[in-house]
Write a structure and sequence with these properties.
Shape: elongated
Number of domains: 2
Distance between the termini: 22 Å
Order of helices and strands: HHH
Number of helices: 3
Length: 72
């Protein structure tokens, strides 16, 4: 399984932002995913970003093959 530990965030973070960033990450729910799922998510984001759609609004995810599961 592939785990993402916020490496991209920490790579671009200013040192003074470290405490708040760590506090924020501690509030998140971390989900395991497979490499295939990560590849597909990246491909969808790449494709749809060029159409101007990058959002967490469900209505902006019209891809018929995408299933959105709410966090309980």
């Amino acid at each position: 399984m592939l785990r993402h530990h916020g490496g991209e965030i920490y790579a671009g973070m200013r040192p003074a932002e470290a405490p708040l960033t760590s506090q924020f990450f501690s509030t998140l729910v971390w989900l395991e995913t497979s490499f295939a799922v990560a590849q597909r998510a990246g491909a969808l984001r790449y494709e749809w970003a060029r159409k101007g759609i990058i959002t967490d609004n469900r209505k902006d995810f019209p891809m018929p093959e995408l299933t959105i599961h709410p966090l309980q």
